[in-house]
Every structure is written in structure tokens, then in C-alpha cells.
Hints:
Layout: H1 12-19, H2 27-38, H3 46-58, E1 63-67, H4 73-81, E2 86-91, H5 94-106, E3 113-117, H6 120-129, E4 134-139, H7 146-156, E5 157-166, H8 186-200, E6 205-210, E7 216-221
Parallel strand pairs: 1-2, 1-4, 2-3, 4-5
Antiparallel strand pairs: 5-7, 6-7
Helix pairs in contact: 3-4, 6-7
The structure holds S-adenosylmethionine.
S-adenosylmethionine binds at residues 42-44, 68-70, 73-74, 90-93, 96, 119-121, 140-142, 145.
Amino acid sequence: MKYKYNGGIMDERMEVFLETFSEELPEYLNEIALKAQMEHVPVIRRLTGGVLVFFLKAFAVKNVLEIGTAVGYSALYMAEGKKDIVIDTIEKVPKRAAQARKNFEKYDKRECINLIEGDALKILKELSDNQKKYDFIFVDASKGQYKVFAEYALTLLNRGGIMVTDNVMQEGEVLESRYAVVRRNRTIHTRMREYLYDITHSDDWNTIILPVGDGIAVSVKI
Ligand code: SAM
């Protein structure tokens, strides 16, 4: 069975067509994505994974920070796509972190993927206090916190480093009027629009927003 996602912003036929040009993945990654889908754990779409690996290779990335591990799918995807990288990945939900840890062990990636359990805000502060630096940061955690994650990313990235932020189009909802969005999603809708404005009008970042997967913002630290 092949995993399939609903709610993408791209026409489904186009997405399936483009996926046929993607690199072959080890079968276990498809199995993890399928299991995640059945358990309602959101993971990156196939084309998003392809874009991440493209950047890792094109910019000769050596180390990665991921915010939002879930069960480890995207970290494993990146580690399979580029063999010589080291990934620190942060997850705050214990059950998900435990599953990710199991997956990293099972697929022999303990050497290159370091799971950091806890709330990203606390961990990002610790990492920046310790003057840790990364070539590439993948932001895929709570959307309401993107602004503060980007502030930390600026400190944690090397100059010329790249930050990719996922789900910036909120399954297409971001382009709707605030009043067309159900009340419970309005705060996040406003925050995402503000985030997109800030990141595209900043002297610190050079950003392009791409309609890949659920929308990604690719930002290079100037
Ligand atoms: N990147 C994963 C993948 O594609 O396989 C999917 C990540 S999922 C979209 C988002 C994850 O971020 C969830 O598992 C959630 O528990 C975690 N998360 C959200 N806010 C967080 C925070 N402040 N600190 C750490 N983890 C967080």
C-alpha cells in the first residue's frame, strides 16, 4: 500500500506525476510514513523530502538541526538522502520521541541522528547559549512559534546557512480572508501571514516561498 495525503495545495495528479521523478527510497521509509498516516502523525510529503535532500547536497551541508521530529521520518529521509550529515532533532512529545528513538536504532542511524527530547524553546536557548552552529535548519513544529524559532535560527545558522520552514500555506488556508477561516484557526492564520511577511521583508534573510508539499519558505541567512 502506498501512503497518500489529503489536503495538499498542489493538484494531486501533478504531485503524483512529479513524485515519479523522485529518487528511490528505502522501503522502510514508506512503511514509516504509512504507519504515521494511519496514526494521524503528520510527516513531510515526498516532494518536500526531495527538496530538503536537494539543498543538503547542493550546499554541501554537514550538520542539520530539525525542530519537530515526530517519529523520525524526515530525519531518516535526510540521513538516507545525504550520507555524511549529522542531524540534531528536537521533539517534545515523549511517545513520539520514543518511537523516533526506536526507528533511529532499528535503521542504524544512531550515529548520525541525535534525538533531543524536550520543548524546542528551551533547547534552542541552550544550543545558542552553547554557541552551537548549523549549516541547515528544518523547522517543522508548532506553526504559532515559527517567528521565535526563526529568531533562534538566525543565531544558530552559519552565515549563508539555510532555514526551511514547512507547512507555511496551511493546506491553502493562508490565502483565505481571516473571516473565511474557522474561528479556532484565526490566530494561527494571522501569525503565519505575519511570519511570511517578516521573513520576506527582513534584512537578515533572503527568502523564497515555494508551493511544494504544504508550502515551504526557504530562507538563506545573509
Ligand atoms: N518533521 C516530522 C516529519 O516530517 O517526519 C514531522 C513533525 S510534526 C509536523 C511536528 C512535531 O513537532 C510534532 O511531533 C510535535 O510534537 C512537535 N513539536 C511541536 N511543537 C514543538 C516544540 N515547541 N518543541 C518540540 N517539539 C515540538
